[in-house]
Amino acid sequence: EDKVVQSPLSLVVHEGDTVTLNCSYEVTNFRSLLWYKQEKKAPTFLFMLTSSGIEKKSGRLSSILDKKELFSILNITATQTGDSAVYLCAVDNYGQNFVFGPGTRLSVLP
Amino acid sequence: EPEVTQTPSHQVTQMGQEVILRCVPISNHLYFYWYRQILGQKVEFLVSFYNNEISEKSEIFDDQFSVERPDGSNFTLKIRSTKLEDSAMYFCASSEIRDFGTQYFGPGTRLTVL
After folding, report:
1. What is the pLDDT of residues B41-55, one digit of tens each?
2. Rounded-to-10 torsion of CA A98, A85, B22, B63
3. Alpha-carbon separation of residue A61 from A52, A80, A101 (angstroms)
4. Which of A14, A21, B11, B27 is most buried (CB neighbours < 10 A)?
């Protein structure tokens, strides 16, 4: 069965802290892994990763994929209260399914 | 900026009734998707649609569900004989190519089945 697992499920930090969110997966026909940020309604796209070892970066956010160990991490440096959200990891299981993980709820306190 | 729109924003229905959720994808997009998110749970992929037919669907997307592109702009999700457990937020998305990374999500329709 296709599976995407995220950890931790919930995280509380203070502004300025650095956080690392984890995503591991087991799917039959991996094509890509995607990270989203979900605040109130629809998820908003952050990164898509297809190759191992290549870091994607956008401002204070970065992400990397390890296709051998079947996981990805999302790093957020110098966190701000506006980073508070649920961060979703999803895997494109090509031709079959698009599987989301349960999300990590990040709360950044002032 | 182009956007995907969904109507209604909130739909309340009685158990056993049929509902149609409507989406207007971005005009030059060719791939369309539906997702659902039961309150407090993870986002679940339902179906993708291309060239007037379903291209991928999950196990959730059973005979109770159907999708249609009735005209050049709308993309609909029909849920027949709704059950209490169909209560969820339903998101539509569209993309120009089959690429989940370039999807635009709509704001969602909250479906409440009583």
Report:
1. 889 999 999 999 999
2. 40
3. 17, 12, 19
4. A21
Residues in A touching B106 (Cβ below 8 Å): 42
Task: Tell me which residues of chain A have a pLDDT lower than 50.
Answer: none
Q: How many CB atoms lie within 10 A of CB B76?
A: 17
β-sheet bridge partners, residue B23: B6, B75
DSSP H or E run through B106: none
Encoded tokens for B92: 């539509």
What is the pLDDT at residue B65? Answer: 97
Q: Considering CB atoms only, which of B41, B56, B103 is closest to A95?
A: B56
State which amino acid sits at residue B108: G
Which positions in chain B touch A45 (Cβ < 8 Å)?
101-103
